Amino acid sequence: MNNLLETPIEYLKGVGPARGELLRKELGIHKYADLLSLFPNRYIDRTRYYRINELINNGSEVQVVGKVIHLKTVGEKRTRLVATFTDGTGDMELVWFQGQKWIRENIKLNQPYVIFGKTTAFNGVFNMAHPEMEPLAEHEASLRSAMQPVYPSTEKLTQRGITNKVMSKMMQQLFMETQALFSEALPQPLINELSLLPKNVALFNIHFPKSQDLLTKAQFRLKFEELFFIQLQLITKNLIRKHKIKGHPFGSVGSYFTDFYQNHLPFELTNAQKRVLKEIRNDLGQPAQMNRLLQGDVGSGKTIVALMCMLLALDNGFQACLMAPTEILANQHYLGLSELAEPLGINIKILTGSTKTAERKIIHEALQSGELHIIIGTHALLEDKVQFANLGLAIIDEQHRFGVEQRSKLWRKNDIPPHVLVMTATPIPRTLAMSLYGDLDISVIDELPPGRKPIQTVHRYDSNRLKVWKFLKDEIALGRQVYIVYPLIQESEKMDYKDLMDGYESISRDFPLPQYSVSIVHGKMKPAEKDSEMTRFAANKTNIMVATTVIEVGVNVPNASVMVIESAERFGLSQLHQLRGRVGRGADQSYCILMTGEKLSNDTKTRIETMCRTNDGFEIAEVDLKLRGPGDIMGTQQSGVLNLQIADIVKDKEILTLARQYAIALLKADPGMIAPENTALRNAYIEMTKKKNIWNYIS
Ligand code: ADP
Ligand code: MG
């Protein structure tokens, strides 16, 4: 029966070459199977019939049973056909602008019809333009049920007469020709365990739902199947990578690590840090390349984990590198790591765009000879001139700023690729991570170091600025420092700079010298100028830092305890959260103040409300995902990955989790899917990987 599904679509009765061409072009439907998996976007509830005297003028879609008692053509040049339709409780008008001749010839007066469509009222008379119309008897006999599917369509398709009704008819034809016998792909034990509908029943009810209950079950079954196959693919790839891509096993824990752990840890590690280190150490001990994502909210303490991983590399005779997206951040890492590693006598250097030529040369040589153990840097590390003696571990901070291509460039610096640890403070919602990075291992630091006071976040309108300024003065009087951040969005750059400079001027007026001093940092300044301003602020020589989102990534000034975000309505949720993470790094109570105008869209209200409610980056990421959809979050490049047929990554995360869990269990028990009960599964899997190996470029 499956062979039949390979039949080109034009052979389906009622399709033919012209419509076949349209279906191919507009919806990518080439054969029966493609049509079968064109799932409805939504369903119209046609269980309810309306009486004409109970219609209300709200533009909703209604269904009425009645008879056409009169038919006339109205108008001179551009005529329309108007039918008087009655059901005994009142009259309404049906109107056609197109296809008048056909309607006139085919419509039967005084016969019961079911009509369906949107009504509007004009001069107290309801009318329905181009109603869907069907003789009552035919309507009752059809496969179609009360839950009427609405299929994806395009303007062209409707123009050329392939309406939703036509689509439904084609689907009906497909089910008749195939006798609705579709072979099962999921293993029977799995179907039993989860009480899934059999494939046949599920497909039937997705297109012709017999009841809401069966529709729900059909949707569940098909979503599960879709996500299950994706997970099978991701997990299989991960297993293959672990077998095939060789890596340097860091077999021993040596003196650097032990010395540091026993004698120089500046604080006790949190349980989350310990757990993550264990996960990473376990990976590093294997003769396969590690490819791990380390997620941890701002301030969760990723740096020390990074250092300890690098020490493991050193202990095993390898070099390590850490790459950061900006010079400021690279510097900060350099300072932090040098300080931590100081007592160990390790050779650490930094390489960025502004490293002087002479110094650069020394670094290049030291890296090549192996004399230099750890290098911190920016994109400058990716240059061809940078060659390592034996790079064993590459750590990448703030992964979303580096393209995939750049990452793999780092790998290619050796025959055997280094282990890769990608650190990100942008918490990717677990569901999304599971579907996008399912073939990457993921570690999460989900606990902040002890003693931190949660940041208090409030929303203030611009009209309350005086009170906010008063608050800032009180905090400054207590010795604290303040960030005031302005949005800088590319397209409106000029305006934004004006806002920033105006803001800076008025702040300088409101916080005058000599009592106060105000710094400013923005993207148009030279790196050296920027750095010197940042350094002044970090050394507590200025009270207020006025900035654009330049400071978004990484800056660490523990004494800064207030973050004011201007025009907060213009920032996305994850950006707001990142910015807020600049404060709350010391022992003091910290605050984040979101300034906005009076008029806010609903989405903005949700963003602001979410920020005020929670500090949990994962919760925020989930809300962000709901507001923006997965494509926006991961960037357009990856959004194609999320082109799912029926499941929805945001709405169906429980099903995704379930699918992943069962996929892992199945592959654990039967990695090659060779057990007899998995034969159909394996065949379907092979078919799918032939068609849709879209995951290649992710890691
Ligand atoms: P992020 O994850 O944002 O990179 P950092 O590594 O910069 O976070 O750590 C933030 C701050 O918390 C640093 O000042 C660091 O020294 C401190 N820190 C990290 N881990 C701990 C811990 N276990 N106990 C106390 N302080 C810690
Ligand atoms: Mg960091």
Number of strands: 21
The CATH fourth-level homologous superfamily of the largest domain: P-loop containing nucleotide triphosphate hydrolases
What ions, cofactors and ligands are bound?
Answer: adenosine-5'-diphosphate, magnesium ion
Radius of gyration equals: 32 Å
| Beta-strand content estimate | 15-25%
Helix-strand makeup class: alpha/beta
Please report the first level of CATH classification, the CATH class of the largest domain. Alpha Beta
**CA-based shape:** globular
Please name the CATH topology of the largest domain: Rossmann fold
Helix fraction by DSSP (H/I, runs of at least 4): 40-55%
Structural domains: how many: 5
What is the terminal-to-terminal distance?
38 Å
